[in-house]
Specification:
Number of helices: 14
Radius of gyration: 27 Å
Mean pLDDT: 93
Organism: Streptomyces jeddahensis
Largest sheet: 8 strands, antiparallel
Protein name: Heparinase II/III-like protein
Number of domains: 2
Length: 649
């Protein structure tokens, strides 16, 4: 199963002026063939996200005309604008709409679904989108539309603005990408108004951003992020917010937009794997936007000097929204207009300075969550997610207690400290974390991650009392691998029925998953959970979930599986998953339990036989490629972790 939404890194989409002109030419040809006698440019068969779409196509035709002078387009633009003004402007309250502050205001708005009372909840974002399509036409429709049409569009945009900011509650869906889009619409509208009126709109837009958006940001991984459906970040809507911030800055020049965008951009860079894969969010766990993210990722990649364009987007759309049959849709047309006008180029070089929540070199990366537990590992083109065992999720040391219950030792009970180090060809991160065992005994864990850009070495040392149970390392859920440059679910690549058979075990005990070889210093195995009876959907890679992506499995366990629930919350209900499990080394230094695993290419002649030695300065780890000195858990005189790294190969 090719992962349906994370297809191609967005910087691989051609973005030259010639490429955009070719896209606009295709849009124009389809629109001219489609336009109805009354001027409707909506995609045939479209029933939702519809209230702004004809106007969006109008703006694309206007841009195409301005760039090419195609004399077939002015009449189509004029007819289609008249259609929207005549047929798609609603002023009577939509029956059942729950978010009005003023009843019977008469202010215009756009509908998500055209029929009275049919799913009215989507009218707020549809009106934001319609406002953005309208102000784009005001920007590029001069000398194309009549003075009467321009006046009617200006009046309509002002009405949309009033409906969004006065008639309704602001941002009623708690979807901040929509809210920032509304602010952008106000800032763009202000440029077409008399000075006094313009200042009022600008002031309202900036107040809404400061008081309703910026002040409500949520923290994650050291960043403050615009809230999205109750969560701090969503990997579908977060990059769209970044695009809206980019446009807000382009329109207004206000520094607050790029300052906040820089924070989001650095956050995205840290959580993305080397190949651009990401998972997580309160609305979509694995579903990605595509061209809607380009403007923001492109502008901010250059601002923070990082290759944000590696982000894998849904390139089935490519440059514009499209229906199932590929027909162009005007939804999000405003983003294509902005992208085609923006001349920023992608910054393609990875950031090399140490980042607290990531270790990355070439095609190896480890992304860490808020408490410095790996949230995503990539090596040799294969991706590992945190595994689940007995309803606990993570990558890290665990104990199998008497009676078979599992206790994962990754939740911190105290300050989590990190130390980065480098040596020729090597990068390393040491995470020191105090945790509490099942018996409520304090355990000091030290996790060392080292990479040469090809392989990843993970060493975990902890002062665990083994009388509590049998320790093991939960070393990840093998999930996806690259196939011809595209990500596919590992199980389907293997073409086999059971998850454990998707991982081949070599004669030397090495586990092979996709292009990845996983080797343990002691025993290592792949485990597949038992799935009792009717509850099989809570066991990922059970017969009930084979063929499902993580996102789909998560939604099955979410509170609202129709698509509005929180898939991250649903995924947390997973009881157990397929997992790599490593045994502790048989002869560790006194008082320690030590695990060592190497994740690397499937074909390597390098032996993996790490040596561990207790010294006065700490634990000395020696492998075929490096030696590392891990200082005591208490750190140096100021409490900072001690790490020394040397190349040995």
């Amino acid at each position: 199963m090719l992962l349906p939404h994370q297809r191609t890194s967005l910087h691989d989409l051609p973005d030259s002026p010639e490429a955009y002109d070719a896209v606009l030419a295709r849009v124009a040809a389809e629109a001219l063939d489609r336009i109805t006698p009354d001027g409707n440019l909506e995609r045939p068969g479209c029933t939702d996200d519809i209230g702004d779409t004809s106007l969006g196509i109008s703006s694309l035709l206007a841009l195409a005309w301005r760039r090419t002078g195609d004399d077939r387009l002015p009449e189509a633009v004029s007819r289609s604008v008249d259609f929207h003004l005549r047929e798609r402007v609603f002023r009577a309250d939509n029956p059942g709409y729950p978010n009005l502050r003023l009843r019977n205001s008469g202010a215009p708005y756009a509908r998500y679904v055209l029929g009275d009372g049919e799913h009215p909840i989507g009218d707020w974002p549809s009106t934001v989108w319609a406002l953005l399509q309208a102000v784009n036409l005001l920007d590029i429709g001069q000398d194309l539309l009549s003075g009467e049409q321009l006046g009617a569009l200006t009046e309509l945009a002002c009405g949309y603005w009033r409906w969004l900011t006065e008639v309704t509650f602001f941002n009623p869906q708690d979807a901040t990408n929509q809210a920032i889009g509304c602010v952008v619409g106000g800032l763009m509208l202000a440029r077409h108004l008399p000075r006094a009126e313009a200042e009022g709109v600008r002031e309202t837009a900036m107040r809404l951003y400061t008081e309703e958006i910026r002040s409500r940001r949520l923290p994650d991984r050291g960043a403050l992020l615009p809230a999205e459906h109750g969560g701090a970040y969503d990997n579908n809507y977060g990059p769209i917010s970044l695009s809206f911030l980019a446009q807000a800055y382009r329109v207004s020049g206000e520094q607050v937009f790029v300052e906040d965008g820089d924070d989001i951009a650095r956050y995205i860079d840290a959580r993305l794997s080397s190949c651009g894969y990401d998972v997580g969010g309160p609305r979509y766990s694995e579903q990605h936007c595509g061209f809607e993210a380009v403007l923001g990722l492109r502008l901010f990649s250059r601002r923070i000097r990082a290759d944000l364009g590696r982000y894998r987007g849904d390139t089935r759309w490519g440059y514009h929204a499209a229906g199932p049959d590929g027909a162009v849709d005007g939804h999000f047309a405003f983003m294509l207009v902005w992208q085609a006008q923006d001349t920023t180029r992608w910054y393609r070089t990875p950031r090399t300075s140490p980042v607290r929540h990531q270790l990355r070199s070439a095609r190896v990366s480890v992304s860490f969550d808020n408490v410095l537990t790996p949230s995503l590992i990539e090596a040799a083109g294969t991706l590992l997610l945190p595994a689940a065992a007995d309803r606990q999720h993570g990558i890290g040391p665990a104990v199998r207690l008497a009676g078979g219950r599992t206790f994962l030792l990754t939740r911190p009970m105290g300050q989590v400290r990190t130390r980065d180090a480098s040596a020729p060809g090597l990068m390393a991160k040491l995470v020191t974390k105090p945790v509490v065992s099942a018996a409520q005994v304090l355990v000091h864990t030290q996790s060392l991650y080292v990479t040469d850009g090809t392989s990843l070495w993970l060493t975990v040392a902890l002062d665990l009392d083994r009388s509590e149970g049998k320790p093991f390392l939960l070393a990840g859920l093998p999930y996806a691998t690259e196939t011809d440059g595209r990500l596919a679910k590992l199980l389907e690549v293997a073409g086999l029925d059971l998850a454990e058979r998707a991982v081949r075990v070599a004669t030397d005990g090495t586990l092979h998953a996709g292009g990845l070889a996983v080797t343990g210093a002691a025993g290592i195995a792949v485990t597949t959970p038992d799935w009792p009876g009717t509850d099989s959907s809570a066991y990922f890679n059970s017969p009930d979930t084979i063929g499902l992506t993580q996102e789909q499995a998560a939604f099955r366990l979410a509170a609202d599986p129709r698509g509005y629930g929180n898939p991250d919350a649903g995924w947390r209900h997973t009881v157990a998953t397929t997992a790599f499990e490593a045994e502790p080394v048989p002869t560790p230094p006194d008082g320690l339990t030590v695990f060592a695993v190497r994740y690397g290419p499937a074909h390597t002649d390098e032996p993996f036989a790490p040596v561990f030695e207790h010294t006065d300065a700490g634990l000395l780890v020696t492998t075929e490629t490096f030696s590392a000195l891990i200082g005591p858990p208490e750190g140096d005189a100021t409490g900072e972790p001690i790490l020394e790294l040397r190349q040995t190969g």
